[in-house]
Every structure is written in C-alpha cells, then in structure tokens.
Amino acid sequence: MSLGIGEKLKRLRLANNLTQEELANRTGLTKGYISQLERDLTSPSLATLKDILDVFGESLADFFQEQTREPVVYRRSDRIQTSDSREDLRVELLVQASQRRDMEPVLLTLQPGAETWEDRPHQGQEFGFVLKGAATIQVGSRAYRVSRGDCFYFTADRRHKLRNTSDRETQILWVVTPPTF
DNA sequence: TTACTGTGCTGCTGGAATCG
DNA sequence: CGATTCCAGCAGCACAGTAA
C-alpha cells in the first residue's frame, strides 16, 4: 500500500514540526492550498512540489521512490492461491507478483497421495523445505524421499515433480527461480 | 496555413468559517 | 486562539472550432 502525495506531504510537514501556515510561508504558497494538497483535493505542479520538498531537504527522486517502494512483509492474508490448485493440492503464492522479482516462493500443501504436475526442464533452480509431512521428489529418473526438516535443491534442467507419499498432509516451502507462476 | 475566439481545465489565492 | 478547511474566483494554458 503506497501513500498518496497529500498524505506523504503531511507526514513530512509534521515530521519537521511545521504548521500548514509555516510551510506556506516558506514555499510562497498559501495555507489554504497546502491544506488542499494534503487532502489530495488538488495536485501540485512539478515546480511547486519541488519547492515544498526543498523545505524538507528531500529530492523529487527520493519522494517518488518512497512512493513506489515494494513492501517488505507479506502477511498470511496476502497469499494468493494459484489456478494450479486442486482439491488435494493447494499452491499459494507467498509474495505478490512483481516485475522485479528474481524468485518465486510458493507454499505447497499436498493431501496424502497428491502429486504435483510434472514440470518440464527449464532454466534456473528450485529449492524446497519440508515444513511438515513427507514426500518423494522425482528429478529426472531419480526419486528422493524427504520428510519434515529436510530440504532439496536442484537445477531445473530435468523433468521434476513431487508426490505426497505419506499418510498425512504435507506442506513444503518451494522457491523457484526465475519465477514461473 | 494562420490567426482569432470561446471553452474548459488546472494550479493557485485570499479571506471567511469551522474545528479542537 | 491557533490550526485547518471551505469556497468563490482569478490567471494561464491547451485545445477545438471557425473564418479568412
């Protein structure tokens, strides 16, 4: 969630212990106009915005970079279930889509006997950590059994898939790079 | 193509009203 | 009573329409 220009300007002003009137005096604007800006009832020209930011010692670049900075924390409620999900297999994106991502962390929840789709060879690597349960991961012609606390890491240049071979629900934190979801 | 005119939009002002 | 909001209005600019 990014703040609007008005809210951001208000925070800057309050952080600098200025009233709207004081800021107006320093920028050569009027206090009424400052009020409108802070409530997003109007938007400043580039020159005016620069004048205001000069008072706070902040550049236009810093101001807008802050506006578009991506979140650091992703909550449980932010998770998105992908269309790959089925009744016996849940695939949840832990981090919302972004153009700048280099990896894709996913939470896989497999019911007993459930199997993922078979992934074709592709560039990049895959990493998984078994949070609970146990499973068999097949990479190329070989199969490896992993259980809670184990992890796996392989180059994705061979066909690979995962199957819950235990009689309990199995949950795996899976990180794919580059993102494919 | 150029010049003129009307219109609408936007950034901003200034002072009165309201709020806490 | 200081801080903030409201609001009518002004200036400048872009743009479309029209006449020459």
Model description:
- This is Cupin domain-containing protein.
- Residues 9-63 form the HTH cro/C1-type domain.
- InterPro entries: Cro/C1-type_HTH, Cupin_2, Lambda_DNA-bd_dom_sf, RmlC-like_jellyroll, RmlC_Cupin_sf, TransReg_Diox_bact_type.
- Keywords: DNA-binding.
- GO terms for molecular function: DNA binding; DNA-binding transcription factor activity.
- The protein is an alpha+beta fold and 181 residues long.
- The chain has 2 domains: 5-68, 434 Repressor (Amino-terminal Domain) (Orthogonal Bundle); 76-177, Jelly Rolls (Sandwich).
- 26% of the residues lie in helices and 28% in strands.
- It has 5 helices and 9 strands, in the order αααααβββββββββ.
- It has a 6-stranded antiparallel sheet with strand order 1-2-3-9-4-7, with no helix packed on it.
- The longest helix is centred in the N-terminal third of the chain and has 11 residues, at 5-15.
- The radius of gyration is 25 Å and the shape is elongated.
- The chain starts with a helix and ends with a strand.
- The model has no long low-confidence stretch (mean pLDDT 84).
- The protein binds a DNA duplex (20 and 20 nucleotides) through residues 19-21, 29-36, 38-39, 41-45, 48.
